[in-house]
Write a structure and sequence with these properties.
This protein is of the alpha/beta class and about 220 residues long. The chain folds into 2 domains: about 1-165, HUPs (Rossmann fold, 3-Layer(aba) Sandwich); about 165-219, no CATH class. Helices cover about 35% and strands about 10% of the residues. The protein contains 8 helices and 5 strands; from the N terminus they run H-E-H-E-H-E-H-H-E-H-E-H-H. The protein has helices spanning about 1-10, 35-45, 70-85, 95-100, 110-120, 150, 165-175, 185-195, and strands spanning about 20, 55, 90-95, 120-125, 155-160. A 3-stranded parallel sheet has the order 3-4-5. Strands 1-2 form a two-stranded parallel ribbon. Helix 2 (about 35-45) links the parallel strand 1 (about 20) and strand 2. Helix 2 runs antiparallel to helix 8 (about 185-195). One of its GO terms (molecular function) is nicotinamide-nucleotide adenylyltransferase activity. InterPro entries: Cyt_trans-like, Euk_NMN_adenylyltrnsfrase, Rossmann-like_a/b/a_fold.
Amino acid sequence: MLELARDYYHLRSIQVLEGIISPVSDSYGKAGLVKVDHRIEMLKASIKNDKWLRVDTWEAEQTSWTRTKLVLDYHHEIIKQKYGEKTGIRYLSGADVVRTMLNAKAWLPQDIDDIMTKYGVACITRLTAPESGQGGATVPDVKEGMPDLWKKHTEVIQDWVVNDISSTNIRNKLKKGCSVKYIVPDGAIDIIRHHGLYNSNDSVCLAQWPQEEEVKTAN
């Protein structure tokens, strides 16, 4: 997602200074999430070779769940100190999360107004694989039903690869003992295996197979 967003802005002559990854705290309470210290460790291992990305732990260290608007407020103050008052920030998210903004029970409408007008939303959409006989892949209308104010401040960035990869799917595959090689960075896989996260000790991919002894033959 971050690479797609950076390409989008660079192609429009907008400089991207850094990408910030902010994991939620344990108090978020989403089913399937492992402890935040493991998530931070996996994230850092995954981006260790990407100098423009960083993992920020402020949100993760909070004792209660922090609203997205407050997290953005915090990071905006930090980046203004680093890069200057005119530096902007975007909330990068997938289309599934952006669509939940229409649910008043999930988001405070005033928070969304503030996020949209003060920061803006960069929304990654996935191409939906075509059904048989239905033509090419399609892009869902993320902005459908949004107030005009929100539409104006939502930038839709199309993922150019048809895929159904998500963190939920990856966790489910690990629990079933399936391989996530080439989908998850090797550094993160090492941490998953080391801590036995997501029942991964049952995975045929992540199991520590014994090395076969070398068979020597003499002529």
